[in-house]
Design goal:
The chain is an alpha/beta fold and 169 residues long. Helix content is 34%, strand content 21%.
Length: 169
């Protein structure tokens, strides 16, 4: 397989999850670490530490998210991407994750938060046509990626806080 071909991770989720946070596809740093949002400047884990106490080692952070009813996954299972930027994802090689199976196994999901515009666009293109409009409410959130430098951390934190507390983000 081509060295620029990336494969995502299994979801971090319990069957009772109510909220699903979706990224696009793990970055190179995340793939190397085998962890979601592994780049040290990505704001995801600092936001989750603030909003649901997800601190400590990666495993402990994931367990805390799941205890808060939050699942994390990516829209894509695999795609060719020669870098870490979402703009580098070659959509013609993209393969979406099995959302039909995920929603069957996680029937309490009521909200999906997209970690950035690309995740929302990929979901609209590859997933939404198959799951229909009766699914969970979807909200596009500001990307926690360090590439999203237009918003300061407090602004990202507030948007995520509104989403997690179910006030319109």
């Amino acid at each position: 397989m081509h060295s620029d071909f990336s494969h995502g991770f299994a979801p971090v989720a319990r069957a009772d999850a109510r909220i699903l946070v979706l990224g696009s596809l793990p970055s190179r740093r995340s793939l190397e670490a085998g962890e979601y949002y592994a780049h040290p400047r990505n704001a995801f884990w600092p936001i989750m530490a603030e909003l649901c106490g997800a601190t400590g080692a990666y495993r402990e952070r994931c367990l805390r998210l799941m205890a808060c009813g939050i699942a994390i996954w990516d829209v894509l299972a695999a795609s060719e991407r020669p870098g870490s930027l979402d703009a580098d994802i070659r959509q013609e090689t993209a393969k979406a994750n099995d959302f039909e199976g995920f929603f069957r196994g996680h029937p309490r999901i009521e909200r999906i938060g997209f970690n950035g515009k690309t995740a929302a666009r990929l979901y609209a293109r590859f997933v939404a046509p198959g799951v229909g409009t009766a699914g969970p409410r979807v909200v596009q959130l500001p990307s926690t990626s360090p590439a999203n430098a237009r918003l300061r951390f407090p602004d990202k934190l507030e948007a995520w806080r509104r989403f997690l507390s179910d006030r319109q983000a």
